[in-house]
Amino acid sequence: FAPAPAKAAPRAAPLNAVGLYYSTTTGNTETVAGYLTAATGIEAVDIDSVDDETLTSMDALICGAPTWHTGADEQRSGTAWDEFLYDRLPSLDLSGKKVAIFGLGDQGSYGDNFCDAAGELYDCFSAQGATMVGLTATDDYDYSDSKALRDGKFCGLLCDEDNEYDKSEGRANDWVEQLKGEGVAF
Ligand SMILES: Cc1cc2nc3c(=O)[nH]c(=O)nc-3n(C[C@H](O)[C@H](O)[C@H](O)COP(=O)(O)O)c2cc1C
């Protein structure tokens, strides 16, 4: 008997590549990135440490920033995102990729500008053709105004390590489940 032709080994469907990028000044955004790492297994990388080729090889991006330039129209984060958004991102084609934003802010001291930088990231990534996912309800927050609002929702996961640090981990875990439901495959 001739040996049966070797069958190709069954292959699991390849997991999508997801990049988790952040920047931070006092560590709070890194703390929340750490909760997201714990929930997804994806290493959190400083946006300053990733090259464009790696970034555009991802199927989905999760991007997190604090807000430091209160009330500013542009460069609200006060971190490396400010350069990334205007020097690098405009030349990247993100069509077909899912992008989810998370932001850190302080509702108590900056309640008129809560997590404004998250809205800036949202608009800049959206302008490059990305499909934006992960918008969240505003109910559980105590703020006056925010440039992170889109159609009555926050444009991503918002956390407040200054006033509600005990809620961040749960919010991050819930958000990861939400992202899975929106087609981000971890
Ligand atoms: C000078 C200054 C300006 C700030 N401006 C804002 C602001 O406009 N909106 C906001 O939500 N938080 C604001 N914050 C709060 C920070 O965004 C918040 O503490 C955040 O957790 C810092 O994140 P990081 O540690 O990752 O840098 C400001 C804080 C400082 C000290």
TrEMBL record:
Keywords: Electron transport, Flavoprotein, FMN, Signal, Transport. SUPFAM superfamilies: Flavoproteins (SSF52218). InterPro entries: Flavodoxin, Flavodoxin/NO_synth, Flavodoxin_CS, Flavodoxin_lc, Flavoprotein-like_sf. It comes from the Eukaryota. It holds the Pfam family Flavodoxin_1. The keyword Electron transport applies. Residues 18-180 form the Flavodoxin-like domain. GO terms for molecular function: electron transfer activity; FMN binding. The keyword Cell division does not apply. Its cofactor is FMN. NCBIfam families: flav_long, PRK09267.1-4. PANTHER family: FLAVODOXIN 1 (PTHR42809:SF1), FLAVODOXIN 2 (PTHR42809). Belongs to the flavodoxin family. This is Flavodoxin-like domain-containing protein.
